[in-house]
Amino acid sequence: MKHILTVAAIAATAIIPVPSACLAADIQSPSGTISLNAEVIDGKPTYSVDFKGKAVILPSTLGLQLADGPDMTDGFVLTSVETSHFDETWHPVWGENASIRNNYNELLLHLDQPEHYRKMDLRFRVYDDGVGLRYEFPQNGVLTYFIIKEELTRFAMTGDHTAWWIAGDYDTQEYDYTECRLSEIRSKMSEAISSNASQTQFSPTGVQTSLQMKTDDGIYINLHEAALVDYSCMHLELDDSNLVFTSWLTPDAQGNKGHQQVPCHSPWRTIMITDNACDILASNLILNLNEPCAYEDTSWIKPVKYVGVWWEMIGGGKQWSYTHDLPSVKLDKLDYSTTKPHGLHPANNENVKRYIDFAAEHGFDQVLVEGWNVGWEDWFGHSKDYVFDFQTPYPDFDIDMLNEYAKQKGVKIMMHHETSASIRNYERHMHDAYALMQKYGYNSVKSGYVGNMLPRGEHHYGQWLNNHYLYAVTEAAKYHIMVNAHEAVRPTGLCRTYPNLIGNESARGTEYEAFAGNKPSHTTVLPFTRLQGGPMDYTPGIFELDMKKVNPESQGHVNSTLARQLALYVTMYSPLQMAADVPEVYNRFLDAFQFIKDVPVDWQESRYLEAEPGQYIVAARKDKASDNWFIGCTAGENGHESQISLDFLDKNRKYEATIYADAPDAHYIHNQQAYVISKKKVDAKTRLKMKAAPGGGYAISVKPIN
Ligand code: NOJ
Ligand code: CA
Question: Which is the catalytic residue, given 458, 511, 513, 544?
């Protein structure tokens, strides 16, 4: 007979030795919405999860295959169980909310694999909105070093759910999302892949996390991971006959999936479960499963609103490089004094000063300048190890003068380090590059990892690279530098521990609108998926949305209305927000630009008012530094009609709302710049009916008047 240990309300750690016949343990979330069962069945560790009495994860096995020893998948016995309860409120350095409650019940299973004298622990944390589980390898077994062949964490689904997914890929996340049933993933894969030219899809049913799903009875399930440190990034492979996902780690150059030394543990595997889409967006599960802040002094970490010398190159046909000459000459042999500039280089003194003036006039903190440093003539491909030195400016970029000019105007220049995925080269120069930043007063860097990885054969999401990304962040902290890495691994909440990681791209951003266009639904999916792990440098704020007007050669089209571009500053949470269009375009629309000037980048409190993945998201956030509220709505192909209550406002105050809405005939393809700005007195009793056009949205700023 099987004995069940039921854990109700536990105030402190309890260690319960397991009688030989007792092979299972149950635990519930603090208010009982989620329950988890863990047991050893025929020697195999197995778990299942219920939400409000309904199965969400059917019994699913856990374990690992090793490349250098017997597998850790069966032959286990449960030796003892520990249970505990945890409840604290913590305060992030920046975030969607000024305080976050971390409240869970924990179950720790101690397992023995007697045949091989090995031990493995399984730790489960059960929250009211989800579960985290991880493998732990204590020092007291015979296991010392081991090589992971594959992690076999299974997630058995209860039905053919609807999923919002991007293709499994070891090197890019810059895909459009596909919405379909799990059973349709295989047939949709080649179309899904065609939105990006990457070569490293691993399986016809492999997808990336964070994976958002919805069951036919309205339960939202999200699979991802938290605290990805010294481990390979997890993808999911679907057995589409049985509707079971299995973890699929990113391999290294030799095909192995991870090198470990005990004591160690895997990242958390996360399962968010709610019956309301807004609660998925509001969940703090991923952040809560990360370690507290590792830095004592965080006073130097500040949210950033910025403009930049960028869209001119991405959308406007300008160049990062200074000249057409010098291809394939080694970096230390470059001599720009003898070459002819091509005249398409916007990172020049005059233009950068123009951006600095614009930033100062409109209250932006920083000006990103890409293409400031030598090496862009031939910057990726050819397996070039030695590309940039991140220190030598082009002849027309006077680093001394421009930083001084910016300082006089009260703004900073944002550094740009495109590594071209040549990691050895970046690490070779990193300290001098950070020291140069410190010398001139830069406090943030946008880095990037375009191209195939060097060392050859390594992948963007492998263990080795994950260690590099974190090294770049922790070394930057020593210089009080904040990091926004593009093309790095998708975030897993590490910004809680290392809050100078103020942004990542790691998904298809606005740049793809210039290259090809994103699906109109894209920004209604990203907050459910990519943003679960941390903020995204999505670079919204494009006002000239017809790319043919920007560059007749462009293949892109910004699939959005102008009003929706404003809303993204609220719906796409980030402490780092760019106003990505160029000053001359903003100068034509100064009334709408006012919203971008007003919207803060750090928040006291956030609420999700309406949401459905692929359809619409409506968020309201309160400024951390004032009593102003900001509301944003982004809508997909079908537009959206909102009925929102402003009951979150202070009951004793009156406010003025400035509403930036799509005009009645606005449309993301043919009438993008049709918007209407109106003002209205509102209070906590106000109900607003709002309409977003197809691919449209609205933005509202709400300021107290008494
Ligand atoms: C790709 C990044 O996402 C983009 O923002 C950047 O401009 C280019 N790489 C060049 O570094
Ligand atoms: Ca990119």
Answer: 511
